[in-house]
């Protein structure tokens, strides 16, 4: 009788253990290195941000991240590649607001709802940048010069990247808010546009405050933020300058992934970005550039993305750029 109970107990234990083994033996996500795909060439802003995430992410999670570059068509090439991959969680998209704008200006068939917008991690205020050695370099001088040129039937020259992109729209918003007219000349990339300003072939460069780092001849003439940045204490805000409605024009940066990833992958990323936004190394890296570290995830981030899409659509249609 005793052996009968013993055998029964062993069988019962075996059944319970067998039921537990799959959850014990099957490792949680990830089981291999995670690829962070960026839409710019090595050295670009989101490329540097993604490489910093790879370093800190490995420290925080113990898992390896690999950054790969897939430039082309302002982010559309990278977005289509990511959407062609399995929704297994292993291909992260390092992105900014710019590819969202590009899907509109290029009339792309990409559905932004096919991405899960995991984490908006940076809010980088838009800025108007001028050359210190030019006669026109303060906001007041920019406005006065633009109005004087308009009376002569001419247009003040503004430079920046991408026709129909974020900085072009920022220029149009500024002109409307300030009651001036100017001409925006786009270049293939911010660096080339910056060279034009350094060569004094333009009056205003539209970008971000961090663009003047290492460029002592350049200054921020106006900043789109409610208060001044501590890293750029001499940069006045639009509000200070008396320009209304220009306090929150930003270039956001963040990370997305193909929609439909497994629950354990989503849990992994939520945990990663929650830890990242509290990490002192990350906060210092972001803040020293004059960028605000933020953490907006999932529904809130997606709402921001869709609002941006609607905003650029409206502005490009009003400008006759988008038919």
UniProtKB/TrEMBL annotation:
InterPro entries: BUG, Bug_dom1
Pfam families per UniProt: TctC
Gene3D superfamilies xref list: Bordetella uptake gene, domain 1, Periplasmic binding protein-like II
Protein's name in the database: Tripartite tricarboxylate transporter substrate binding protein
Organism: marine metagenome
Lineage: unclassified sequences, metagenomes, ecological metagenomes
């Amino acid at each position: 009788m005793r052996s009968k109970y013993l055998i029964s107990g062993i069988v019962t234990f075996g059944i319970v253990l067998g039921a537990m083994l799959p959850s014990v033996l099957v490792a949680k996500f990830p089981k291999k290195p995670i690829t962070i795909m960026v839409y710019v060439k090595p050295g670009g802003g989101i490329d540097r941000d993604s490489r910093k995430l790879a370093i800190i992410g490995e420290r925080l999670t113990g898992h390896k991240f690999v950054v790969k570059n897939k430039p082309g068509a302002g982010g559309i090439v990278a977005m289509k590649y990511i959407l062609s991959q399995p929704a297994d969680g292993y291909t992260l998209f390092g992105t900014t607001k710019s590819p969202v704008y590009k899907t509109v200006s290029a009339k792309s068939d990409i559905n932004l709802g096919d991405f899960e917008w995991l984490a908006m991690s940076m809010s980088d205020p838009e800025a108007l940048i001028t050359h210190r050695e030019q006669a026109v370099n303060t906001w007041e001088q920019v406005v006065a010069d633009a109005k004087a040129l308009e009376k002569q039937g001419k247009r003040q020259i503004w430079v920046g990247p991408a026709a129909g992109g974020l900085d072009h729209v920022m220029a149009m918003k500024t002109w409307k808010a300030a009651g001036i007219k100017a001409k925006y000349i786009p270049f293939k990339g911010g660096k080339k546009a910056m060279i034009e300003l350094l060569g004094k072939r333009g009056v205003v460069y539209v970008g971000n405050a961090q663009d003047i780092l290492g460029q002592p001849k350049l200054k921020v003439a106006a900043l789109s933020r409610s208060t001044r940045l501590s890293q750029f204490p001499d940069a006045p805000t639009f509000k200070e300058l008396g320009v209304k409605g220009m306090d929150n024009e930003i270039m956001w940066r963040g990370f997305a992934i193909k929609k439909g990833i497994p629950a354990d992958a989503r849990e992994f990323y939520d945990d990663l970005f929650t830890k990242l936004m509290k990490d002192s190394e990350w906060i210092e890296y972001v803040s020293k550039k004059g960028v605000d570290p933020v953490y907006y995830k999932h529904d809130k981030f997606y709402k921001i993305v869709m609002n941006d899409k609607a905003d650029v659509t409206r502005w490009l249609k009003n400008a006759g750029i988008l038919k």
